[in-house]
Amino acid sequence: MWLIRPGVVLLAAAAAAQAAVPYSKTTHTFKRVAGCDVRADVYRPKDKNVRPVLLWIHGGALIFGSRENIRTVQLHRYLDAGFAVVSIDYRLAPETKLPGILDDVRDAYAWVRAKGPSLFRIDPDRIAVAGHSAGGYLTLTCGYRLEPRPKALVAFYGYGDIIGDWYSRPDPFYSTTEGPVPKEEAYRVVGRKAVSEAKREENRFRFYLYCRQQGLWPKEVGGRDPNAEPAAFAPWCPVRNVAVDYPPTLLLHGDKDTDVPFAQSQQMARELKGRGIPHELIVIPGGEHGFDARLDDPVVGKAFDRVIEFLKERLR
User: Fold this and answer.
1) Beta bridge pairs of residue 154
2) What Rg, from alpha-carbon coordinates, does the chain have?
3) Nearby residues of 34 by Cβ (< 8 Å), 6 or more positions away
4) Tens of pLDDT, residues 42-91
5) Is beta strand 23-33 parallel, antiparallel or unpaired with respect to 36-45?
6) Which of 48, 69, 153, 207 fits a 20 to 30 Å CA distance from 183?
7) Dist. CA 94–CA 61, nearest whole Å
8) Helix 72-80 / helix 298-314 crossing angle, nearest 10 deg
């Protein structure tokens, strides 16, 4: 674990605002299931070189969000570093439960490996996975669910335990800082038909807020009651599935995160250390959820520099 402190002079952050490498973007449907198209956006430098690839997974509590949520500045940093980037959708909860969501991530990875070399000139043996928040959680599941294993994982404020009290009990922060969401309103903004793209502006966040206030997220997303069937969640908790072949992992987390507790990354780091897995935990002092929105902040900029270095090291 290493701590980033303010006051670091970072010259690269200003240059990160624009991509130096011209790039192309193509959109593909990698899966159709339950009448729902699940898509991926592929970004890559405009050349004919075979590139290593970063599979990027958006956040949104598995309830909202889309592949378009990748931040432009960060996308440009990945492209400038020489990577192709595949930003994926997955079906969203509660219409699709967690096993289906995990299947979508697995199928996206398989599609990149099988079709990527011919469609967008990538090396199928040099793939890393990165994600933010719930995307960070899905990234950590890739360490034991995907075959062959990715070369590296990068989880921004992700989590390894989905049935801890932080998720399966009413959340003090959301219960005291937000007005109560009525049950009728919460269920009105979701439906029964599978969806794979939903911006936060569509108010699905209200369903998430209701779940956090009631401690219902594991039940609504997993489709099982963690109080009655805790063992059912074990295969879905990365912290319980770290083995000796788990990929090298970089964890980034702010110690003032009020959405995903900082302790989640600490717990994951302890498990990785206990299994002898190469890993780093970068702590952002005072960092809140979504701290990486400001790469022009020297502290955050330095952390993202390490992300790029880590990926280069692992995808040589």
Assistant:
1) 130, 250
2) 19
3) 91, 96, 194
4) 999 999 999 999 999 999 999 999 999 999 999 999 999 999 999 999 99
5) antiparallel
6) 69
7) 11
8) 40
Q: Please name the residues in contact with 4: beta carbons below 8 A apart, sequence gap of 6 or more.
A: 282, 283, 284, 285, 299, 302, 303
d(CA 32, CA 28): 11
Under a CB-based contact definition with an 8 Å cutoff, are residues 214 and 182 in contact?
no
Tokens found for residue 93: 């909860």
Peptide bond into 226 cis (omega under 30): no
pTM tops 0.85, yes or no: yes
Question: In the predicted model, what is the mean pLDDT of the chain?
Answer: 94
User: pLDDT tens digits, residue range 233-275?
Assistant: 999 999 999 999 999 999 999 999 999 999 999 999 999 999 9
* Domain positions in the chain: 2-163+228-314
What CATH homologous superfamily does 2-163+228-314 map to?
Alpha/Beta hydrolase fold, catalytic domain (3.40.50.1820)
Q: Which residues contact 9 (CB under 8 A, 6 or more apart)?
A: 298
